[in-house]
Amino acid sequence: MKDMDGIVEVMTALGRAARAAAAELAFATPEAKAAALAAAADAVRARRDEIEAANARDLAEGAAKGLGAAMMDRLMLDAARIEAMAGGLEAVAAQPDPVGEVIAEWQRPSGLKIRRVRTPIGVIGVIYESRPNVTADAGALCLKSGNAVILRGGSESVHSSRAIHACLVAGLRAAGLPETAIQIVPTRDRAAVTQMLRMVEHIDVVVPRGGKSLVGLVQREARVPVFAHLEGICHVYVDRAADPGKALAVVLNAKTRRPGICGAAECLLVHRDIAATLGQEIVDALMAAGVEVRAEGLRGSCPAAPEDFGREFLDMKIAAKVVDSIDDAIAHIRRYGSSHTEAILTEDDTAAARFFERLDSAILMRNASTQFADGGEFGMGAEIGIATGKLHARGPIGAEQLTSFKYLVTGDGTVRG
Questions:
Q1: Are 220 and 241 found together in one domain?
Q2: For the packed helices 48-65 and 79-94, what is the interaxial angle rounded to 10 degrees?
Q3: What's the pTM?
Q4: Are strands 234-238 and 265-271 parallel, antiparallel or unpaired?
Q5: Judging by beta carbons within 10 Å of its beta carbon (0-12, 13-18, 19+), is residue 280 exposed, middle or buried?
Q6: What pLDDT score does 252 carry?
Q7: Which is deepest, 56, 160, 334, 375, by most CB within 10 Å?
Q8: How far apart are CA 244 and CA 238, in angstroms?
Q9: Are residue 32 and residue 171 in the same domain, yes or no?
């Protein structure tokens, strides 16, 4: 679809349908939404062979394009990941419905009774790359929070995303909810993304989930409000009071479990007092695991260059540096971090408290892998992404973060003097 007028027409139709569906979803019962998600999970399991076949097409096309190992890993769906996707739909279904929750209530001397209650945002646009499971996560969370959603997956995952989307539509149909509550953009043309970013009359917020180039494009060009993070430059600081066993296990997991996700560690900071012992042991273990360690002050795979700090590798590579103190580590993170996720490994409560107090990333951890920076691991069932901004949503974006609020005010013939 190359005709821009045609793309505008298609996107406008999607927007109008989403707006109409959102009006209906705003008062859909919690039971109906949960039933739709449960039915969608059943459909994912029943259609596993179809999803795997669609994913095989995407993987073949990706290999032909020369996609890297980390990108291919993001793209791949096997039986375990498909089952996890179905489980995620069920987990979201089982959560308390956020719509209508009373956040606060009070009474004024005038006699007015005021309640602040959660309400859906309206229509969410989600633009994502490579990971087809985002189709299920985004669809589920938007439905749970009473929002309609327009999904625009990456061209490399188009077949997988369409197969998953069909399962979500089957769930909506089974529950008697509007099938246009979850729509997918039917074209790979990037002009559709540009159009989505301009649809202020149809889309209330856009959530980009992908690499730096995609998120940067969205943040630069969007007229619609954006929930996003630009990069996941996650740091792990090994304090002088770190437990060696915990530190070794956490750093290895933070880097190697899935190096291509935004919660993967990209920089290791080591206190000088333990650099020659525990610090070097960790670096040696990383290299033994196949990680290229670009090091400053440690014996790594190669010396670190200045541009290695503040870099999102999304690969089996990590920058490493010796720091003189916890305050030096904090200063380094403030300079090079992306406000995503940072971890401190220490048994010193005072050091942990200082780290938590003086850094302002969306997620701060102690003695835990940065790979836990995930809505599912936070008990949200799933997430659309990690927001690093400071307005409205921050950290994992789950169903609750996809709501706004309104005030319900009750009087008894009350007039203002």
A1: no
A2: 120
A3: 0.83
A4: parallel
A5: middle
A6: 98
A7: 160
A8: 9
A9: yes
Least Cα distance to 40 among 142, 145, 132, 164 occurs for 164
Residue 363's CATH number: 3.40.309.10
Q: Kindly list the distances between the CA atom of residue 63 and the CA atoms of 58, 82, 164, in Å, as whole numbers in the listed order.
A: 9, 21, 21
Does one domain contain both 38 and 62? Answer: yes
Query: Do the strands 403-410 and 386-387 form a parallel or antiparallel pair, or are they unpaired?
Result: unpaired
**Alpha carbons 387 and 393: distance in angstroms, whole number:** 6
Does residue 101 have a pLDDT over 70?
yes
Residue 413 lies in a domain: no
Number of Cβ within a 10 Å radius of residue 407:
9
- Residue tagged 């990108």 (tokens): 71
CA atoms within a 13 Å half-sphere pointing along the CA-CB vector of 241: 11
Mean pLDDT across the stretch 351-373? 96
Instruction: State how many domains the chain has.
Output: 2
- Distance (Å, whole) CA 387 – CA 190: 23
User: Does 408 fall in a domain?
Assistant: no
Domain that holds residue 89: 4-228
Q: Which helix (H) or strand (E) holds 13?
A: helix 4-25
The answer to whether residues 62 and 160 belong to one domain is yes
User: Is the distance from CB of 203 to CB of 124 less than 8 angstroms?
Assistant: yes
As to burial, measured by CB atoms within 10 angstroms (0-12 exposed, 13-18 middle, 19+ buried), residue 84 is middle
Boundary of a domain, candidates 178, 207, 228: 228
Bridge-based pairing state of the strands 102-107 and 113-120: antiparallel
